[in-house]
Amino acid sequence: MWILYALVLHILLLGSIFVIYFRSPVIEGLEPQERLKGQPPADRLVLIVTDGLRAQSFFANNCNQVPHLREIFIKEGIVGISRTRVPTESRPGHIALIAGLYEDPSAVTRGWKENPIEFDTVFNRSDHTYAWGAHDVLHIFEKLADSGRPMHFDAYNHDLDFSGQQKTYKQDEWVFDRVRLLLKRKQEELREAKRVVFFLHLLGLDTAGHVHKPGTPLFLENLKFTEHGIWKIYKQFEETFPDKRTAYLLTSDHGMTDSGSHGAGAQYETDTPFMLWGAGVASSVYAGIFFEANDEGLQLPIRELEQAQLTPLMSALIGLPPPMNNFGRLPQGFLGTDAKYEAMAAHTNALQLLAQYVRLQKLHMRGLFAPILNRFDKLTPELIAEYVGYIKTSFTLSRFHESTANSALVMQLALEGIDYYQGYYCNVMLLSTTATFLGWMFYLYRLLTQDAEPKNIDSGMNGHASKIIVGLWVAAVMLLGFVVVQRVPFAVSFYLLLPLPVWMLALRQAPNRNDDLNAPAYTQPTVANPKQVSIAQLLLLIGCAELLVFTFFDRRMISLCFIAFACYSNWETFKRKRRLYLWLMLLVVLACFPLVPPSVGYQNCYLLLGGILLLLIRQFLSKKRENSKWHTRWCSTVILINTAVCVNLHNNQIAVPLPLKIISWLYLVYAFVSIHLNKEASLELRLEHICYNLGTLYTLMCTSYESLFVQLLAIELTTALAEQRAQVEPLHHQQKSLQSSLRIAFTIILYTFFSLFGSGNIASISSFDPNIARCFLSHFAPFVIMSLVLLKLVLPIVINLSIVYTHSEYARLHERQIFICLLLICDIMGLNFLFLVRNTGSWLEIGSSISHFVIMEVTTLVLMLLAYVSKLLLRLTNCDRALSKLN
Ligand SMILES: [Zn+2]
Ligand SMILES: [Zn+2]
């Protein structure tokens, strides 16, 4: 039963983070603001998004990479850096840019392509919108085309080719051609139209970044083509509309790391360039920081703003109100208009933000307890009325600068207020989730100590515990009453109430002791001094978990952790000196891998070749060679040669021929089927088979040293466990047993994280490298590649788990205890991460802290699943028995 509880609870806890920290920013029931009065500075806006272009690529080398664009911004306009938030993906990036709202990442779980909730955009407010680009991006905004406004979307099919045959900038060329076609065809009609938006989405650089990596010659080739193309299309627009009433904005949705990925919060990923020029744009703008714009040493100011601030700016340029759900504040001094127009734009922006705030406040005040609960005092209805009156008088007195400053202040307050009401229950929920965690850990701890003394299981409850349970019921009823009367949102209520059933479950299992609530757990083991032993174990448990928590903040810490743990658990086990030295050498080599800079990890043929050779050597030098099936060896050899050929072809920009790809897919099936069909009963021989097949499969998806690393790790684990087994003492004491469980549980967790950290960065699973699929396919199919990435992450864990099961009889017999220890360690770490989640500070910290928590919660679930898979592969004879024992 406890496995089921664990599954359900961990899924719920995983959800808690989204309820606590990610509330949907879209507020419903809003009305759009009025359009700006008077003549707007521009009639049309050209928005060009170079997908995935980071600021560094733009400004590097004194902007020599973008000579044509430099020519423009030296002459006119504003240039700078726009900061995006995490996740740095195309969808949230474009929504922040065009709707001005930072979509909550949980939207990803609610459907990647459909919009979970309707939101307003600049396109919605405009009279006409023309858009060209990739279907994935245009699709987000196409769905919003309501209210009968003419929107024209033209998307190409997104079957990208990354085999190197086709140039990545073909996609951009397609867009430029389509734009030219439209400008020629509808010239007359477009000249008359006002408040028009042209949106050019250029995907080429994103593809080039993923495939060739930023800064490589092929990437720069694409950049050169695209920036020249933008310049030509700019000239074309100026030719078609000679009235000088076109405004231009060039920016990108997110950046990219050196290894060609995005999604996380590194500076390369969040810093994107922006360029604003044309009608209505200030000719120069004050900025504290300057950069060198060309080789002659020309110094230009560089402006910084948040991505969503571009939304009200775009709206103001063509006389539109900001979209209803916008969170951006109009940056001051960017408009090259008179002070009156800027004051008006700022006022409309402030009203639009206030509308959201007022709406939230109203929703909160519906609750019966609202008058006695805390409120946001900095912005009361009286203050809002005062502000509106002040703006009116300052407009009649022509005090536009004061008016703009005042609007900016109110915008800031409105945003704070929105934050306040959206996070109203945040702290309480944090508290209740902690209580849930503690209750669950208490439950696990009881299970563990019951295990140690099975005779003590008794369903009889003592009076003390039942009193507490009655108390919990009373609390539950009262809390339920409160959330109903106060109209607390459903999800929030759920997590507020969750700790109560968990604690009831934990207390229900009370053993028949009459100690107070916290003591009975410690009194279980039959060892001489039970209390101390248990506390020591508890401390050990917490210490182990805390040590691992640190590794999340510095990848290199895991080397230290690994060496310390390996020495602690194996130092006395080695009897033969020669083996000891070999093992130590292996340890040192392994500990070096996480220290290698990540850039080495993304592509290195020689290291990959080393992995392949090691695999071959292991296969043919194995002592049990006679026993292994001939087809296993030959299939592996063939596939390894295939890998080498594919990699070589790919590196030389030659497409991988279809037969080779088919062989790779066939091997993927063969690797698992042949293990399944193998009737071998000896565990070690089965393990050998598993290591060969899965190791070979893993190598097929490697780009650098990963294969080498994972194999060495497997060798090390095998050596250590085999040596330990050779001198296992009979397990009399329960105390000993608990310690062993703890040690094996920690081994499993440590090796899991080590295999993940050592072979790459686990903090950004979403940002994958398509090159790992080069032996399988040459088209960019995100979901297939994603599945392969997951498979690649999971394979080393399965190998390690199989090794543990094979070489440790203890692990096979005490599975339940080990898994409870495992859950306890993971939960202690999870609780740490729950508190380390930040909702202030830079987005880098917030993003990575959240992903840590998610990784932790997922790990527990995945490990349970993978343990089952490895037992299935090993055909453990007591598999069914063990399973029934677990329940
Ligand atoms: Zn993108
Ligand atoms: Zn991308």
From TrEMBL:
Pathway: Glycolipid biosynthesis; glycosylphosphatidylinositol-anchor biosynthesis. GO terms for biological process: GPI anchor biosynthetic process. InterPro entries: Alkaline_phosphatase_core_sf, GPI_EtnP_transferase_1, GPI_EtnP_transferase_1_C, Phosphodiest/P_Trfase, PIGN_N. One of its GO terms (molecular function) is mannose-ethanolamine phosphotransferase activity. The keyword GTP-binding does not apply. It is an enzyme of class 2 (transferase). The chain crosses the membrane at residues 6-22, 424-445, 465-485, 492-510, 535-553, 580-600, 606-621, 744-768, 780-806, 818-837, 849-869. Its EC number is 2.-.-.-. It is found in: Endoplasmic reticulum membrane. Residues 416-842 form the GPI ethanolamine phosphate transferase 1 C-terminal domain. It is a multi-pass membrane protein. Its main location: endoplasmic reticulum. Ethanolamine phosphate transferase involved in glycosylphosphatidylinositol-anchor biosynthesis. Transfers ethanolamine phosphate to the first alpha-1,4-linked mannose of the glycosylphosphatidylinositol precursor of GPI-anchor. This is GPI ethanolamine phosphate transferase 1. It comes from Drosophila hydei (Fruit fly). The lineage of its organism: Eukaryota, Metazoa, Ecdysozoa, Arthropoda, Hexapoda.
